[in-house]
Structure formats: structure tokens, C-alpha cells
Amino acid sequence: MVNVISFKVEHQCPQCGAPIVLDEETRFFACEFCRVKSCICAQGFPRYMFARSSEAMSHPDAPEDAHLVFVPYWRFKGLCYTCTPAGMSHRFLDISALALERSFPGLPVSLGVRAQALPLKQITPKTSGRFLRPADMTRVLDQAQQRSFRMAGQTDTGFTEHIGETLSLIYAPFYRRSGRLVDAIVNRAVGPLAESNPGLNHLPDCRPEKQTRFVPGICPACGWDLEGASDSLILMCRNCRTLWKPGKQELARIDFRCARPGSKTDVMVPFWRIQARISGLPLSSMADLARLANLPRAILPEWEQQDLFFWAPAFKVRPRIFLGLASRLTLRQPDPDLDRQIHELTHVPVTLPIHEAVQSIRITLAGLAKPITERLPGLTDLKITPVRATLVYLAFEDQVHDYVHTGLKAGINKNALALASNL
Ligand SMILES: [Zn+2]
Ligand SMILES: [Zn+2]
Question: Taking the complete model, does pTM exceed 0.85, yes or no?
Fold first, then answer.
């Protein structure tokens, strides 16, 4: 298991103003002081900064009125799947990269490990200092990723997808002291600022603050307390049986379907069922999928007319389990009776957004395609346009170690699910 690090972020309770520290993945929380539940609405990628600790500021070498320059870093954390002629592999990536057009003597090229010990803070309009404008994210992260691939000895043939990713912009403070650039967190000079190297003065700056928007964790339709895990992307009202998703500004009601549970102890497991237009490969019916997968059984004539749905877990879980479920369900095309009920049962939280489920389609197909060497060029050039996606809860039996769907011969290890909130 990879050593997954979650950053801590300082917030303020929107209700009572108390300082609260949350994991970066947290979207739904109860304030430990006033107990009021709130949801965090996401507006683009998060932007945070490392602040100087009081310890750093009281250091004998630290000037009291240091004029801080905040240097931007892009940070990517997520699962990276790579498909090559040799097959599929996955790696967990947690990388950060200096978000400037070029490097500067002394400026660290990444945030490094020490950053993990410091809490991140929100940047507010009151935060003083100069914030450098970040360079284009795609280019910066591509380079960082290629470095990390080269280290792993991977080749360029095939394709790569990121699933379950967190992208953020993180600022680290520096200042200048007698001609040298100083890391303001540890008060240590990191590089020269000679005449020939005018340093960071000539770079464009910006004000990156974006206020975190909180909305009350109550049902907009009936006022009941919403239910969810801290990293739930979708919250549930058990009173009026509705589901809500924090959007950019407020909670939006979302549609869903639910299979009928077989027993009162079943657990409802969420999946995204996606209809998509695929170009680059003939793939519009169940028969097309059977041909791609080179199924050993004969293709039934009715499969030529049968619409194809792509399935993906709507929760983060270890790659092997994720891909196993996605390919099994896509191959089996489950079609149970569905309604819009919310049953008095445990519901596994939705932690994987729809756009990431769409990104997983190519990976699922690569896992099913046989032989992969012949199919890889087609899969690499594939264009996937989602047409319709529905959140579907399927009923799984609650067994000792696993949730099991007998009809689909699918199982999810409970421990793996519990450990996945950090992925
Ligand atoms: Zn509070
Ligand atoms: Zn309600």
C-alpha cells in the first residue's frame, strides 16, 4: 500500500467562527464547537498557502517585517493508470512542481516532504505579500509526471489516464535577506540573488484568493439534516428521500436510481452508469463490446441492438477493485428494476465524481480488450463523449469481510473501502 499523505487545511466555521482543521478531501463536516454541519462548495481548484509559524517568525534571524514573496507550486495527487503493449499498470502519484516558467537558483523544484507537516491556510484578501502568477498547469505537471515515469522506466507507447485526482495550487513564502533568497518557513537562505539574477522581481504577480463557500448541511427541500461522510460528494436527505450535490454556489438536487434490496441488511453501493458516444472504435452495442473483448461465447443476434452502458464505481477504492468492478459490470450490463427510493439501509458514500468515471471508460475498455497489442492503437485514439450518466445504487449483501453481489459475482472488500477515503 502506498503511503498516502493528506494535507491539513485551516478553515473557520461559517456558523460560529471557530478555527477548524480539516483534511484536504473534506467536503462535509460538523463543527466540533457548535456542532453545526456545513458543506464546502468547490469553485475550481483549491488555492492554499503555507504561513510562517510563530516559531519561524520569532527566530533570531527572521526580520519582523520581511516582505514575503509567495511562490506557486502545482500539486497533483491521484491514481495514474498506464496502458502499454505489455498491459495495464497503475501508480499512485503525489507530485508537486514549481509553477514558474523557469527555475531559479535555490528555489526548490517541488514542495518536498517537509510541507506535509505544515497546515495549509486559506488565502484571503487580507493576506499580505506578493503572489506570483502560476505558469500553465498542464505543462508543469506533464513535465513532473514524465520525470516520475522515466524514473519508473516506463515507455511512451499507449496512454495514461488519471482517476480520482486532487489538483491544487499551493504557495510557499520566501523573502530576501542581504542579497539572498530565504525560505520563510525555516528561515534558511536557499540561493543567491545576484545582480545577474534579479530573482523573482520581474515575474508577473496576481491575487489568487478565492473565498471558500460553505452552505448549511441541511436539506434545501425540507430542512432535515443531510447525511454523508466527510468526503461525500453527494449528500442524502432521509426525510424527503432526495440527494444533493454541493455545486459552485449551493446544493443542487440530483437524480438517481436504486435497485430493490433483497434483505434488510443489504448495503446500497453507488455506481455511475454512463451512455457515451465513442469514436475511433466501433462500440455502440453489446455485440461490439463482445467483439472487442473477444468473448469465448457466440454473440447473440439481439446484442447487435442492445445499447451499451459503461459502469464505474462512484466511490474511490483500490485500483484492482475499481477496475474489477467496472469491467465486470460493463461486461454484464446489469438491468435490474430501478426506482427512486431511498431505503433504510447503509449507503456507501459517493466519493468519485462523474467526470472521473467518464475518464475511467478507456481504462475499463483496455482491461477488457483482447488482444491488447492489437487494440491499443484504437484505444489510444479513442474519443469518448458522455451522452447521459445516472447514479445507480445496487444492493450488495453484507457478508463478513465483503459486500457481495451474487448475481454479478462481484465483491468489495470492506477494509479496502474503509481505507480508500485518502486515495
Ligand atoms: Zn462552529
Ligand atoms: Zn429533505
Answer: yes
